[in-house]
Amino acid sequence: MSTSTDEHRPAADRPAPTAPTEGRRTQDAAGSSPVRAGSRVVIIGGGPGGYEAALVAAQLGARVTLVERQGTGGAAVLTDVVPSKTLIATAEWMTTTEAAAELGIRGGGGTSVDMAAVNRRVLALAERQSQDIRARLEREGIRVIDGTGRLAGHLGSTGTRPVHVTTADGEEIELVAEIVLVATGATPRVLPDAQPDGERILTWAQMYNLTELPEHLVVVGSGVTGAEFAGAYNGLGVPVTLVSSRDRVLPGEDEDAAELIENVFRSRGMTVLSRSRAAAVRRVGDGVEVELTDGRVVTASHCLVAVGGVPSTAGLGLEEAGVVLRDSGHIQVDRVSRTTGVRVYAAGDCTGVLPLASVAAMQGRIAMWHALGDAVSPLDVDAVTANIFTAPEIATIGVGEREVHDGEVDAVITQLPLARNPRAKMLGIREGFVKVMADRHSGAVLGAVVVAPRASELIFPLAVAVTQRITVDQLANVYTIYPSLSGSIAEAARTLHQTGE
Q1: C-beta separation of 309 from 188 below 8 A
Q2: What is the dihedral of CA 354, 360, 361, 362, to 10 degrees?
């Protein structure tokens, strides 16, 4: 049971509801909370976890203040998800021409990439998205403060939680809240012997500083971020060397999908150094040297260090407020986003649950539904869809093949290559597949993997099947367009039909 409840406080200490504000629902409006309307909510961090929480809290009648130091939308909008996927979309345009000759299309002169123009567009789009989010928040009556927030180490006299804010102008403000949400995200991890300089040695947040294509880019780290940037720059025509400390790229993903992506990388001319680890990255004149632990040295013009993130939890007064941090620095939360601190919730990458914007947003919504007395279902990570924006993309939902092989789940598996799909043949698509895991006895769809162009779109019917416990027979009996890539989803379901023998 939440400790941040108004019904446990004397009526005299409860905050009085404010007058209706244009664009914000009031206590009597549909969707508002009859329990805690008028509660003061302070949100530290304006990324997906923060701004989605703010919108829910305002909808439920709370008085909401959001504090963000970088810009509305946070790193996800300004330096991470939005800009990186915009860059990848540009690179994807280049890779779609690979099948041109096969389709009978002849071109002359080729294409070239203006990196300065690409990054201007990337950053402009991110800024517009940030402005759109801020405008939406303000229309809903949410107060947005540009600044940095910090929890007080004590509760107020009425049991409220004070939050100290230093504004962008240097002004010191104290906010008082019945509910606080921390959604401060994460920053790129930096290696001791690979210090970024923003010019030649770069984090993913600094890649948009480039005004020219690298002559040769070394990417250290073959997780999701490393693989996406390596694939994007390779698609833009840059010679890329990917340093992977594991046996294959994307070590945490479906093995068949990861193997396919690595083979695609190599076929497009990328150098993949498997079972290799970077010991140091040094700036040498107008280039870099990447020293590996086995003594080899890779010389290049630029190096991207993509070795994970560090939660942005330092200096927030969390431990003084009773919030337990894990050894990694992530905030410990339960499935409704509560921390161990009184009246303090947390959402997003600072919690280390899953580093996805969609999960951060859901954690933020769940936190407000719970804190403000609305109906809420705890976070279910098994229902999370994830996508890796390589070319082709990798989309996943639910149970994976590894869990089936390890005996954790009793399921049957089917996998169909996309190359035999008629629509794929028309489009010149050779790589990709649809994989479905279904309960051995009931036939319910438990998980799926799609590797294909726009796999992020194709995974949706399979996500519906997993979350709604739809069986393979029910899925197979849904009409699909002929010809279409989604036809392979129904075909995969048909192969898992149980005959009763």
Answers
A1: yes
A2: 50
pLDDT score, position 378: 97
For helices 115-139 and 48-59, what crossing angle results, to 10°?
20
- Mean pLDDT is lowest, of 25-34, 53-62, 478-487, for 25-34
Q: Which of 356, 447, 451 is nearest to 395 (CA)?
A: 451
Pairing of strands 201-202, 217-220: unpaired
Rounded Cα distance between 499 and 480, Å, is 23
CB 391 within 8 A of CB 454: no
Q: Which residues of 46-80 are buried (b: 16+ CB within 10 A; e: fewer)?
A: bbbbbbbbbbbbbbbbbbbbbbbbbbbbbbbbbbb
- Residue 24 makes CB contacts below 8 A (sequence gap 6+) with 58, 59, 61, 140, 141, 142
Cα 400-405-410 angle, rounded to 5 deg: 80
Residue-averaged pLDDT of the chain: 91
Whether the predicted pLDDT of 17 surpasses 80: no
Q: Rounded to an integer, what distance in angstroms lies between the CA atom of residue 130 and that of residue 127?
A: 5
3-state secondary structure of 441: coil
Direct distance between the N- and C-terminal alpha carbons of the chain, in angstroms, rounded to an integer: 49
The candidate with the shortest Cα–Cα distance to 145, out of 50, 36, 21, 24, is 50
The tokens for 126 are 């991110």
In this prediction, residue 157 carries a pLDDT of: 85
pLDDT tens across 266-282, in order? 999 999 999 999 999 99
Q: Which of 26, 25, 70 is nearest to 51 (CA)?
A: 70
320-379 tens-digit pLDDT: 999 999 999 999 999 999 999 999 999 999 999 999 999 999 999 999 999 999 999 999
pTM to 2 decimals?
A: 0.89
- CB neighbourhood size of 484 (10 A): 15
Q: Does the pLDDT at position 110 exceed 70?
A: no
Could you count the other beta carbons within 10 Å of the beta carbon of residue 384?
19
- CB 334 within 8 Å of CB 249: no
Cis check: omega of the bond before 483, within 30 degrees of 0? yes
> What is the signed CA dihedral for 362, 366, 369, 371, rounded to 10 degrees?
-140
pLDDT tens sequence across 190-202:
999 999 999 999 9
d(CA 296, CA 316): 42
Q: Is 388 helix (H, G, I), strand (E, B) or coil?
A: strand
CA distances from 278 to 31, 67, 222, 234 (A): 53, 38, 12, 20
Residues in the chain: 501
For 168-243, where are the E strands, in sequence order? 172-177, 179-182, 186-188, 201-202, 217-220, 240-243
